[in-house]
Amino acid sequence: MVETPTFQKVANKGDLREGGLLGVQIDSKRIVLAMVEGNVYAMNAVCSHKGAPLEEGTLMGYDLKCPWHFALFDVRTGKVSARTVWATDLESYPVQVDQTTGDILINVSSAGSADSAKESGVT
Questions:
Q1: Fewest C-beta atoms under 10 Å: which of 22, 41, 59, 86?
Q2: Which tens digits make up the pLDDT trace of 26-52?
Q3: How many domains does the chain contain in total?
Q4: Is residue 1 included in any domain, yes or no?
């Protein structure tokens, strides 16, 4: 899998453990990667409430809990939990993982269109 203008390498799957979070940056966008059940998800890493760094939060299944005021976000979609009335939805991004190299690539130009991680071989 090769970097394209739309998908850019941000990390390697070896950098991210199951149930873990990893902060990365593309240009001026701060993004948090999460691994759930072997799939990698990407969303904005800045909480919409007070700007907390979400890579320092806690991942519970698909829910990412903000470290400052405990807002809950679904890592698959960036949507905030209905129980979290003090924060708003965040952008999520499509992810590709190269099965050969383990490279994680994300597409920040397609914000909000990621409904699940896409594990793929070399294309």
A1: 86
A2: 988 999 999 999 999 999 999 998 888
A3: 1
A4: no
